[in-house]
């Protein structure tokens, strides 16, 4: 086996050496599958920051600024932060070029902000998704459920990180409330100010870690604690509305001193779902489990007799808020899918057309009676 497959990260501090793909997670399996590309003169690298048409890549000789021309056929993936790519090294008169994006093992994907049928990949090849939630602000369980749906759908392991515990009167009570919206996800209470929970956090967040959450949730401050130095810009939260300033302007990949890498992301103002059916099942695993006992296999958990989910709401085992959130996110996901699926779109539009026809018929009937 070539020396490329056995390369391990050096024990020297990051600041004292040139970083290579081994420091960013390049492994034996990827090296084995990359053999044909090596035979064509290509080398592997990982995208640490992506821009339109260009990206910063960590290659075998260190950081490289590479061009990433779009495919004329549109069949090539656009490189994003966390991607592994095949690079053609720079020549005497040419710059380094991204030739191909390697298969993504996982990807955090949301609907594009334009509300089109397109999707936006926030981070690729992620092992752990840390959803940051500030305990200094009122809890928004629906937002947490939305973030977790993206996290579960990505194929990575989600964790909910409650930040700013030092600014919360009762962190334990808040954590218990959040736990009702995050079945199956690791839940951690932390404070970057006092250091509470950071040792546990370091142990839980392994591999490639991406921080997700709104501005002001404390992602960058938390990231700096994990990095061991202030590499990420942070800003104060506005007193007027409690919202944070967008101090992170792009997604960037940084190596962690204890192993693994970190992707800090800008605050997410909105998170639209895109083909997140499995993620929703995981996020609402309690409802999915209850649904197994419904009388009808296609129960919508709305008004059907023998609905185990509605029964759980009635007896207090499930909150109406959580069921409403489940319905809302399911509808959103269905409409997002319909934007790319003509047949499904027609199915969704059919009930509305039927209601319109019924309303017209009623108006005509009323007119004739008058």
From TrEMBL:
* Gene3D superfamilies for this protein: P-loop containing nucleotide triphosphate hydrolases, Probable gtpase engc, domain 3
Q: What cofactor(s) does the depicted protein rely on?
A: Zn(2+)
Positions contributing to GTP binding: 163-166, 213-221
Main localization, broad class:
cytoplasm
Which positions bind Zn(2+)? 294, 299, 301, 307
The entry's keywords: Cytoplasm, GTP-binding, Hydrolase, Metal-binding, Nucleotide-binding, Ribosome biogenesis, RNA-binding, rRNA-binding, Zinc
Q: Please state where this protein is localized.
A: Cytoplasm
Among InterPro entries, the record links this protein to: G_CP_dom, P-loop_NTPase, Ribosome_biogen_GTPase_RsgA, RsgA_GTPase_dom
Residue ranges occupied by any CP-type G domain in the UniProt entry? 116-271
Cofactor binding comment, as recorded: Binds 1 zinc ion per subunit.
Superkingdom of the source? Bacteria
Pfam family of this protein, just one?
RsgA_GTPase
Q: Where is the EngC GTPase domain?
A: 124-269
Q: What is its EC number?
A: 3.6.1.-
The yes or no answer to whether the keyword RNA-binding is present is yes
- State the family it belongs to: Belongs to the TRAFAC class YlqF/YawG GTPase family. RsgA subfamily.
Main function: One of several proteins that assist in the late maturation steps of the functional core of the 30S ribosomal subunit. Helps release RbfA from mature subunits. May play a role in the assembly of ribosomal proteins into the subunit. Circularly permuted GTPase that catalyzes slow GTP hydrolysis, GTPase activity is stimulated by the 30S ribosomal subunit.
Assembly description: Monomer. Associates with 30S ribosomal subunit, binds 16S rRNA.
Q: What is this protein called?
A: Small ribosomal subunit biogenesis GTPase RsgA
Q: Which organism is it from?
A: Streptomyces fragilis
């Amino acid at each position: 086996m070539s020396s490329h497959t056995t390369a391990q990260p050096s024990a020297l501090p990051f600041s004292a050496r040139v970083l290579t793909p081994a420091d960013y997670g390049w492994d034996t399996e990827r090296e084995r599958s990359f053999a044909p590309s090596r035979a064509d003169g290509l080398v592997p690298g990982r995208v640490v920051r992506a821009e339109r048409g260009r990206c910063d890549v960590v290659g075998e000789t260190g950081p490289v600024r590479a061009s990433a021309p779009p495919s004329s056929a549109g069949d090539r993936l656009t490189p994003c932060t966390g991607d592994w790519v095949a690079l053609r090294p720079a020549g005497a008169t040419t710059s380094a070029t991204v030739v191909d994006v390697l298969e993504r093992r996982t990807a955090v994907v949301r609907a594009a902000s334009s509300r089109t049928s397109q999707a936006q990949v926030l981070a690729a090849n992620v092992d752990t998704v840390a959803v940051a939630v500030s305990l200094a602000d009122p809890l928004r369980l629906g937002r947490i459920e939305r973030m977790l749906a993206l996290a579960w759908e990505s194929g990575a392991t989600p964790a909910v990180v409650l930040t700013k515990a030092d600014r919360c009167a009762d962190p334990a009570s808040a954590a218990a409330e959040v736990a009702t919206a995050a079945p199956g996800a690791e839940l951690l209470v932390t404070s970057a100010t006092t250091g509470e929970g950071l040792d546990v956090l370091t142990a839980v967040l392994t591999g490639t870690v991406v921080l997700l959450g709104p501005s002001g949730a404390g992602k960058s401050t938390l990231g700096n604690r994990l990095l061991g130095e202030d590499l990420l810009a942070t800003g104060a939260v506005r007193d007027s509305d409690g919202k944070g300033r967008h101090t992170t302007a792009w997604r960037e990949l940084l190596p962690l001193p204890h192993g693994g890498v970190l992707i800090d992301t800008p605050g997410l103002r909105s998170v639209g779902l895109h083909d997140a059916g499995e993620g929703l099942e995981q996020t609402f695993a309690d409802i999915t489990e209850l649904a197994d006992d419904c009388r009808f296999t296609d129960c919508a958990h709305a008004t059907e007799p023998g609905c185990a989910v509605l029964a759980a709401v009635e007896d207090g085992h499930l909150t109406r808020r959580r069921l409403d959130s489940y319905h809302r996110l399911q509808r959103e996901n269905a409409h997002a899918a319909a934007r790319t699926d003509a047949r499904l779109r027609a199915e969704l539009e059919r009930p509305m057309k039927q209601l319109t026809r019924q309303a017209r018929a009623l108006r005509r009937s009323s007119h004739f009676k008058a």
